[in-house]
């Protein structure tokens, strides 16, 4: 059967990558074409992203993807996804030639606390939740906008993947799954809530029209032809919120499967057909984000590998020595139970970058728990605490949605962490099926392939291709 080649640009908080996907009715092969670091950029006015650098890396990666796809009939299209909520502001009267205003902020920047207060004075959280169905995250776009100094100058706002799409094509749209993370989308109609915008003093003209995954944004600008080595490359909207693509790329094996998409965050929840917007779901801080094909991602943000990676970064800075995660995890597996402290990974002190071992020690002291001392003890305590956070969220998701969960799928970087997968199985009581690690890129590629007609079917049918082509590891709960 015919195999077609697609490229995914997938930007995570700690790295970005360009992946090539060869896809056919029985084929799903991924190769990494480019990988580049990403992270916080500390400027005098706060934490930012190096968005122009990311764009340049994506372009170079795409040029390489074009080269590699040449013998295989060329690249059929490109899809872009990234973390949610962040945006760039644009200025200009001609839609095809707008300039970026300022440097996009990183969602971990602390300015948003001002925005939360300001927003809730106008619209109390309970009402916001009824309208947008979103969990409270202090960095949801609407809170960022309430603290945004450059807003008065801006003509347009584009979320990160849409901004890169604009730079590639000159066309502006707001992809629907990521739009759902702004807080400005109506959870039921899935359209911009212009009434809410007016109440918050935001002009609806600031926002580009919402379009679902499967829409063709446009083709690459003529000015990029030489650099890319290709003309008129189509950019297809996919689930541009990375978590939306990750859930497409999760081979949910039963109707009662839960998932954990574990990268920087651990996104724990269920795929539903209808939102759950109740007082209980609001209090438990469960979100109803938009999924591909109009599905609902009913989930909550649990701390993810951020805690581990910031811990390793702290030790690297302190010792000047590169830390080896695999070795640390192997040592952590040997730590006896009585040396492990389970702490609350949801404590807000862990959100900003910084010295996590110090913060863990402070939290444990405050709660009169033993402070883990050695690196292996700290790593083991982090892993067990993450698993405890996941287990709690899984139980809540099932209860709030009135579902009986039978299995948990762990995808993303965390699925490679056997200690974490086993601890999650043990603490939740559910079997954990781990993999694929590249669920986000897979989800991105599969929606492009379905849009072009290389594959067909519902998400369930599309996911079968993943379980047929990828090796998954099952962790049974113990004791
Ligand atoms: C994960 C993610 C998550 C959002 C956060 C901002 O990368 O997109 O779904 O809550 O970043």
From TrEMBL:
<dbReference type="InterPro" id="IPR043129">
    <property type="entry name" value="ATPase_NBD"/>
</dbReference>
<dbReference type="Pfam" id="PF02782">
    <property type="entry name" value="FGGY_C"/>
</dbReference>
<keyword id="KW-0684">Rhamnose metabolism</keyword>
<keyword id="KW-1015">Disulfide bond</keyword>
<dbReference type="GO" id="GO:0008993">
    <property type="term" value="F:rhamnulokinase activity"/>
</dbReference>
<keyword id="KW-0547">Nucleotide-binding</keyword>
<dbReference type="InterPro" id="IPR018484">
    <property type="entry name" value="FGGY_N"/>
</dbReference>
<dbReference type="GO" id="GO:0019301">
    <property type="term" value="P:rhamnose catabolic process"/>
</dbReference>
<dbReference type="Pfam" id="PF00370">
    <property type="entry name" value="FGGY_N"/>
</dbReference>
<dbReference type="GO" id="GO:0005829">
    <property type="term" value="C:cytosol"/>
</dbReference>
<keyword id="KW-0418">Kinase</keyword>
<protein>
    <submittedName>
        <fullName>Rhamnulokinase</fullName>
    </submittedName>
</protein>
<dbReference type="InterPro" id="IPR018485">
    <property type="entry name" value="FGGY_C"/>
</dbReference>
<feature type="domain" description="Carbohydrate kinase FGGY C-terminal">
    <location>
        <begin position="258"/>
        <end position="451"/>
    </location>
</feature>
<dbReference type="GO" id="GO:0004370">
    <property type="term" value="F:glycerol kinase activity"/>
</dbReference>
<comment type="similarity">
    <text>Belongs to the FGGY kinase family.</text>
</comment>
<dbReference type="GO" id="GO:0005524">
    <property type="term" value="F:ATP binding"/>
</dbReference>
<dbReference type="InterPro" id="IPR013449">
    <property type="entry name" value="Rhamnulokinase"/>
</dbReference>
<keyword id="KW-0067">ATP-binding</keyword>
<dbReference type="GO" id="GO:0006071">
    <property type="term" value="P:glycerol metabolic process"/>
</dbReference>
<feature type="domain" description="Carbohydrate kinase FGGY N-terminal">
    <location>
        <begin position="102"/>
        <end position="249"/>
    </location>
</feature>
<keyword id="KW-0808">Transferase</keyword>
């Amino acid at each position: 059967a015919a195999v077609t080649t697609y490229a995914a640009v997938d930007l995570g908080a700690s790295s970005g990558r360009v992946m090539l996907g060869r896809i056919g009715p029985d084929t799903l092969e991924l190769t990494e074409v480019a990988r580049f670091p990403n992270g916080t950029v500390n400027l005098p006015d706060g934490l930012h992203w190096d968005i122009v650098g990311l764009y340049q890396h994506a372009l170079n990666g795409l040029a390489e993807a074009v080269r590699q796809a040449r013998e295989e009939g060329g690249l059929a299209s490109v899809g872009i996804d990234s973390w949610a909520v962040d945006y760039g502001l644009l200025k200009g009267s001609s839609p095809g030639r707008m300039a970026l205003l300022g440097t996009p902020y990183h969602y971990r920047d602390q300015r948003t606390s001002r925005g939360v207060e300001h927003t809730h004075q106008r619209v109390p959280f309970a009402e916001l939740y009824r309208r947008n169905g979103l969990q409270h995250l202090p960095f949801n776009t609407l809170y960022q906008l309430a603290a945004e100094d450059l807003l008065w100058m801006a003509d347009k706002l584009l979320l990160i993947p849409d901004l890169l799409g604009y730079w590639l094509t000159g066309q502006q749209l707001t992809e629907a799954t990521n739009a759902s993370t702004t807080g400005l989308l109506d959870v039921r109609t899935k359209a911009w809530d212009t009434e809410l915008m007016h109440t918050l003093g935001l002009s609806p003209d600031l926002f580009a029209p919402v379009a679902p995954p499967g829409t063709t944004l446009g083709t690459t600008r003529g000015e990029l032809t030489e650099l890319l080595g290709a003309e008129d490359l189509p950019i297809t909207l996919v689930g541009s919120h990375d978590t939306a693509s990750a859930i497409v790329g999760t081979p949910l094996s039963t109707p009662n499967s839960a998932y954990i998409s574990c990268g920087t965050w651990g996104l724990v929840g269920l795929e539903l057909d209808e939102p759950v917007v109740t007082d209980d779901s609001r209090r438990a801080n469960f979100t109803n984000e938009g999924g591909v094909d109009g599905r609902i991602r009913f989930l909550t943000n649990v701390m993810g590998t951020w805690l581990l990676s910031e811990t390793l970064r702290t030790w690297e800075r302190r010792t000047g020595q590169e830390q080896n995660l695999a070795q640390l995890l192997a040592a952590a597996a040997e730590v006896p139970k009585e040396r492990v402290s389970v702490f609350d990974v949801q404590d807000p002190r862990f959100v900003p970058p910084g010295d996590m071992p110090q913060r863990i020690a402070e939290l444990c002291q405050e709660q009169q728990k033993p402070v883990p001392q050695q690196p292996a003890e700290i790593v083991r305590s982090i892993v067990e605490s993450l698993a405890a956070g996941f287990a709690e969220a899984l139980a809540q998701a099932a209860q709030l949605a009135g579902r009986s969960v039978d299995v948990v799928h762990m995808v993303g970087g965390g699925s490679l962490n056997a200690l974490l997968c086993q601890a999650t199985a043990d603490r939740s009581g559910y079997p954990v099926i781990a993999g694929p690690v590249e669920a986000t890129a897979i989800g991105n590629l599969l929606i492009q392939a379905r849009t072009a007609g290389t594959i067909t079917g519902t998400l369930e049918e599309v996911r079968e291709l993943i379980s047929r082509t990828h090796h998954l590891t099952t962790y049974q709960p113990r004791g």
